[in-house]
Amino acid sequence: MKKKRLVTRTIILAVLALAVGYTLYANLNKESNKKIVIGKPAPDFVLVDMEGNKHRLSDYKGQGVFINFWATWCKPCEREMPYIENQYQQFKDQGVQVLAIDSSESELVVNKFVARHGLNFPVMIDRGEVQAAYGINPLPITFLVDKEGIVVKSHTGELDEDTVREFMEQIKP
Amino acid sequence: MVQLSSNFLFAAFILYLVGILFFGGAIKDKRHADKNAPNRWAKIGILVTIAGFLSQLTFFILRWIASGHAPVSNLFEFTTFFGMSLVGAFIVLYFMYKTPLLGMFTLPVAALIIAYGSMFPREVTPLIPALQSYWLHIHVTTTAIGQAILAVSFAAALIYLVKSVDQTKKSKSTLWLEVVLFGLVSTLGFVLVSSYFAATDYSANFNYINKEGQPATEEYTIPALVGPHQYELTDKNRLEPLFETPAIISAKKLNTVIWSFAAGILLYILFRLILRKRIAAALQPWTKNINLDLVDEISYRSVLIGFPVFTLGGLIFAMIWAQIAWTRFWGWDPKEVWALITWLFYAAFLHLRLSKGWHGEKSAWLAVIGFIIIMFNLVAVNLVIAGLHSYAGS
Amino acid sequence: MNEVKCECGHVNPHGTILCESCGRVLEEKEKEKQLLDMRYEGSARRSQTYNKTIIDKVWNFFSSVKVGVWLIVITLVASSLGTIFPQEMYIPPLMPPGQYYEEQYGWLGKLYYELGFHNLYSSWWYLLLIASIGVSLVICSLDRVIPLHRALNKQRVSRHESYLKRQRLYSVSESALTDDAVGKIKQKLSAKRYKLREENGDILAEKNRFSRWGPYVNHVGLIIFLIGGMLRFVPGMYVDEILWLREGETKAIPGTDGQYYLKNNAFIFEVYDKEKDDEVFQDAINKVGTVVKNYQTDATLYKRAGEIVPGEKPELEEIRDQSIQVNKPLKVDGFALYQVDYKLNEMSKMSFNLENKETGEQFGGVTLDLYEPDMEYDLGNGYRVEVMSYFPDFEFNADGEPATKSRIPNNPAFIFKMFTPDKPEGEVSFVAIRQNIEPLGDNDYKMTFNGVETKNVTALTVRKDLTLWIIGLGGLIFMIGVIQGAYWNHRRLWIRKIDNQIWTAAHTNKNWHGLKRELEMVFADTGIKAPEDQLVEEKKD
């Protein structure tokens, strides 16, 4: 009887403690409640680049994909572009694709930007849907997708050239 | 029609004052010392009170018809409705307990609340989009009624304290009781000061620098004892302020508070000089024949009756409407938080009474504190703490 | 187990104060009191009796009403602290919050921010307080409802003298209990909806026992409510997104995974008009200036057909047209879209004319779509304009170069290259609002401003909250419980014949006044005294 009561009490207290613990944990981590989970497949998307070519993420199975979200008005985005361009030249023949997705700007502005920086990788404009699917908030943000289509890394903020190289090395098939 | 309705409000106010006199007479009348049956004075008192209530109800209905929405959309309308609900709650409890003394304490509080509310702009205001919902009527009226019933417990608690606190010697209890009564006196002070300067059309305009560093203007309707930040008085023959406030303090509101306190202190000193004893001590003989247990029970029962009504109006209906109008049922807006605080307080009150056996004087003090919280939510949260409900403050 | 056996033969759990069956006082301390403490019927609160392990200690801590009241009071005080200054979510997002609090409220504001009070209600310690109240609710209720239920179920009709004598309402009459009197009393009690039980000529009348369960029912409601609040943190239960939509624009509704699209046909902003609206509002409008009457988005809702791949041009099926107003959200599939914000007159198109500076002759105009301007505009006859650069939200950056702050056309600026038959190599002109700069020397031609078109933008909050029904259910149960406990009261009356005397005693959990009046009526004209209030007699002495 006494033992039974102890067991009941322990169970009730444990359930309550779990509930409270979970709530506190979830509350602390609510900022980082992301759409993208590392180790899970990257959401598929289709976008048309500035040359008019259609790119579908799932078509790049077998290659590593370096996805960069950016905008022309974003200074850090502009600074990292040359590094991405340089490394793209190194890795494009080793099975690494770069997809640079602009955040809802006009074609004119993006085209001028591409021309000014001499970018050769596919640049495309998203009207919001892909950004929503990837839960984009601050720019720039970079996602690394491996040859299986799995997100292996995400990075928010500016990249230096070494990091870009390291990233591409990481997803090289 | 609005003018006509205002006359009914005024009539109601006068009737409440007359009601107080009759209830006072009922207590002083020695011929019918028999406690069970109310005497003739009390009967007339309650009839006058009901007449006042009906008159105010007429005001409410006429104003509703004139404006097309329930007149509970600004501070004047809400406060007068709260006063009316208080009278209504008293009438109900009077028929349950037949105590004229309750009228002698409730009606002055109600009259004071109505007078206080009448100091705010009385124009019929059109509804902003957030208020255009039938939940306005449901939420606001239920909350006001709940708070009014809870306020009756304050009146009963006051009776309890006036009777039970030993006035023959100075103590913490006598001090705090005087502080509570002083609060009522300064409200009266505020009403008198505002009415006097409104009647004389006082107006003084200032240019000043607001907290954003921009030039701004302010119109004072009572003489400025404190002026706004870097003020410049633009009217002639008006009182020059004695002080200037930093930009982050609203000088006009502070000025009103200072006037109310000053008038309150003057009135209080005047009362003390006339009575030659504490106000509570002067009131004590009136409570001679009342049974403390009965008053305690009235106070407790009004909390029991009022608490569910307040929960329904102030929290549940409030949440439903907030979900519809503001996209979420709870947003930690100051008014919401203070409704929660009120609710938590009365929850604590009930637990202390039920489980800890806090009866009598302790319970009476709690009822007083509860009323202070309600008034704080009505006055300070609207006027001082800005929030989503602040449209109700103008 | 140290169970307590009462003289009447009933075996009570350890810690019982009043015998569950006959009411005899079992605890020595209680015997000295003139009136019994009837809380929980004198039953043994479970927690008090065991205090061995750490589990028992934690349990006992939360089982105390004193602890519960302290938790309520601490929460109450903590909540009030958060209203001193506005919470972070209510301040304008113009600058870092720390800076804002300091600028607005001085050092107090700074302290407020540093203590974390700007986000008080989502701080870990505030949540912990609320959670502790939840734990206290569960344990307090469990610990009391079971023994109380036991005590009320086990109660015998004939209560012990010591029990009757110590009830607040109690009397002894020196008369015999005639059948006539008994019949009268029983009949009146039944009419008052009392349930009667009889044993050996003794009577127990009882009514509204269910009101004793009110507190526990409302606690269950509160617990359900808190569970609902907790579930909000579970992913997928709660969506809170914002959708900015220009007039004419169609966008996917965020949070719906691209399933639903919304088109903004028009955004309407209305203020009350002194002339047109009801005359009674005139004074108020004169005093305040403008009062807003309506915010409204005329929207069309679409559902996306086929496979959903973000970025792919969607195939949309129209569902319906609806006007979204404050207080009138658009609802679809568990989502609700609320009118929450707007921006009037955002620039959408800008027109310029190509003009010869000297003669003032014009060679045609261009109209630029500020969201999607063309690269080049051919005006015919050898006149053409090329857009070299476009800055939707123009500023000079730190290096003194023209740049854009964002993609929103708040302050559009262009660098044009104007080609004319007499200047085939082109002239460069920088054009911004009220600015016309010629960076590469004097030009013969210029772009003159020729009007602007604007559009309104609406902001809608997208909300899904799957916890609402749980919260609502909790609220409903709470209300039922609180009404059950507050508006009814549990009344009991005992009548016993002891040595040619009639003993009566009565108890209620509240509203003694009502019970006394009821009993006076019941005992009128029966020759038996109604139970009298021992508290009042005490005071008279």
TrEMBL record, chain A:
Residues 36-173 form the Thioredoxin domain. One of its GO terms (biological process) is cytochrome complex assembly. Its main location: other. InterPro entries: AhpC/TSA, Thioredoxin-like_sf, Thioredoxin_domain, Thioredoxin_ResA/DsbE_sf. Keywords: Cytochrome c-type biogenesis, Disulfide bond, Redox-active center, Signal-anchor, Transmembrane. This is Thiol-disulfide oxidoreductase ResA. It is found in: Cell envelope. The keyword Disulfide bond applies. The keyword Transmembrane applies. NCBIfam families: PRK03147.1. PROSITE patterns: THIOREDOXIN_2. GO terms for molecular function: antioxidant activity; oxidoreductase activity. SUPFAM superfamilies: Thioredoxin-like. One of its GO terms (cellular component) is cell envelope.
Automatic annotation (TrEMBL), chain B:
It is found in: Membrane. One of its GO terms (molecular function) is heme binding. Its main location: membrane. The keyword Transmembrane helix applies. Keywords: Cytochrome c-type biogenesis, Membrane, Transmembrane, Transmembrane helix. It comes from the Bacteria. The chain crosses the membrane at residues 6-23, 44-66, 78-96, 101-120, 140-162, 174-198, 257-275, 303-325, 337-354, 366-388. Pfam families: Cytochrom_C_asm. It is a multi-pass membrane protein. GO terms for biological process: cytochrome complex assembly. One of its GO terms (cellular component) is plasma membrane. Residues 73-166, 259-389 form the Cytochrome c assembly protein domain. PANTHER family: CYTOCHROME B_B6 PROTEIN-RELATED, HEME EXPORTER PROTEIN C. This is C-type cytochrome biogenesis protein CcsB. It comes from Mesobacillus subterraneus. The lineage of its organism: Bacteria, Bacillati, Bacillota, Bacilli, Bacillales.
From TrEMBL, chain C:
Pfam families: ResB. GO terms for biological process: cytochrome complex assembly. The chain crosses the membrane at residues 67-85, 124-146, 216-234, 466-488. InterPro entries: Cyt_c_bgen_Ccs1/CcsB/ResB, ResB-like_domain. It is a multi-pass membrane protein. Its main location: membrane. Keywords: Cytochrome c-type biogenesis, Membrane, Transmembrane, Transmembrane helix. This is Cytochrome c biogenesis protein. GO terms for cellular component: membrane. It is found in: Membrane. Residues 65-520 form the ResB-like domain.
